Amino acid sequence: MANHITIRPATGKWSVRAGGAVIGESENALELTEGDYPFVIYFPRGDIATAFLDQTDKTTFCPHKGDASYYSVVTKSTTLENVAWSYEDPKPEVAEIKGYLAFYAGNGVTVEKI
What we know:
By secondary structure, the protein is mostly beta strands. The chain is 0% helix and 54% strand. It has strands spanning 5-9, 14-18, 21-26, 30-34, 40-44, 53-62, 66-74, 79-86, 100-103, 109-113. The strands form 2 sheets. The chain has a 7-stranded antiparallel beta sheet, with no helix packed on it. A 3-stranded antiparallel beta sheet has the order 3-2-10, with no helix packed on it. Residues 15-105 form the DUF427 domain. Pfam families: NTP_transf_9 (PF04248). This is DUF427 domain-containing protein.
């Protein structure tokens, strides 16, 4: 694993809300810390109501994790553009995050321990 990335089980139960809707809760989330950045919670895809997600054309590349695909959250009242991402085929050093989704907190999205 890249020496500045740490992945560990996130303790407790975590929730993600977007556009006023709870779109996921998990007791099996992962906490990824990269360098000096704040930790990011990655939710197992099976714990997210993926019917709210719409994959977009946006992609980014991280030299430590690989290519990220992005998703918008679509609810009855709003569309939150590119607020979720996933590494569909992460680098071997961070293989634990395959099948997980992460969310940008803020602007209508809340990720919190409950």
